[in-house]
Design goal:
By secondary structure, the protein is α/β, with parallel strands linked by helices. Helix content is 39%, strand content 18%.
Length: 307
């Protein structure tokens, strides 16, 4: 970890730089609407230190001054803190469970005349919700009676959402995708930096993207296709690791209220339910981060997505 002169052990920030860091937090709140105080302090400090060195600032006072003068820097810092690193079908074991167990169970329970609702929270560049759309399309091709589906992908990063909406990805994003699926749902496009792969229009139409802050205390954003009743599957993988403990509890409470009884929650491998939320779930596979919301049935008995 890069540290600045005078930083205390385990911290990238000198003790006398705290007021400057608070000024940086305030600027990010004002310009991006995101409260970095809810994020893990060590992560924020490390990424801020990397940014100030990249810009040639000698200390946090200089970096705070730079951010005050450059309105875009708050966005650049936030994007650096929430770096998007993902691939389609990332973690074969997890997506194997989703494809072979979770989705078939939901399809059977909902029925061909129902509506399946999936939320990918913190979706980054869109690989995760599109992966679910590909699974559903492929199950339909195999003869499964797939119900109508609404798949939401939300994130705080508008640039990442713009990438997701375009549906054009570098070859590395498909490193864990089978050649059969690539042939069926992607088209290879030449690019200056190598081949790129464009998702089919059918898959792109299956996913709705929107900006959303998990810490804002609201559920899925309003809109003509926003589900009026809870989701059946919520994926929030490798998002909680960015947050402090109280913020993790806040997010998990939101996700719990956003799930239908019997619906599934999928977290990252290094993440787990808090004690307060664990009582709402049964564990399906701890290593895969899969949990099922308690109470039988996928309809009735719930008030809807928190808003």
């Amino acid at each position: 970890m890069t540290t600045l002169p005078g930083a205390s052990a385990g911290s990238a920030v000198p003790r006398d730089a705290e007021p400057c860091l608070e000024q940086i937090f305030q600027l990010v709140r004002e310009r991006e609407g995101i409260d970095l105080r809810a994020y893990r302090r060590g992560t924020v400090e490390r990424r801020a230190t990397q940014r100030l060195h990249k810009l040639g600032c000698s200390d946090y006072r200089g970096y705070a001054r730079r951010m005050a003068e450059d309105e875009a820097e708050a966005h650049h810092l936030l994007a650096h803190i929430t770096i998007k690193v993902s691939r389609f079908f990332r973690d074969a074991d997890v997506f194997g469970h989703l494809r072979d167990a979770v989705l078939p169970d939901l399809v059977r329970q909902i029925g061909a005349d129902g509506e399946l609702r999936v939320w990918s929270a913190g979706c980054g560049n869109g690989e995760e919700p599109y992966s679910m759309a590909v699974f559903l399309a492929d199950m339909s091709r195999e003869g499964w009676p797939i119900p109508a589906a609404t798949i939401w992908g939300t994130d705080i990063d508008e640039e990442a959402l713009a990438v997701a909406t375009r549906g054009l990805y570098p070859e590395g994003a498909l490193a864990e995708t089978s050649p059969e699926l690539i042939a069926a749902y992607w088209a290879r496009r030449p690019g200056r930096l190598g081949s790129q792969y464009e998702l089919s229009d059918d898959i792109r139409r299956r996913v709705v993207f929107a900006r959303h802050d998990l810490l804002s205390g609201t559920g899925l954003p309003a809109g003509p296709r926003s589900p009026a009743i809870p989701c059946h599957l919520v994926l929030c993988r490798n998002v909680l690791i960015y947050f402090q403990r109280h913020a993790q509890e806040q997010v998990l409470q939101l996700l719990t209220h956003s799930l239908a009884p019997g619906g599934y929650l999928c977290l990252g491998e290094a993440e787990q339910l808090t004690k307060a939320q664990a009582g709402h779930y049964e564990t399906i596979d701890r290593r895969a981060g899969l949990y099922r919301r308690t109470r039988e049935g996928l309809s009735g008995g719930s008030t809807g997505v928190v808003s």
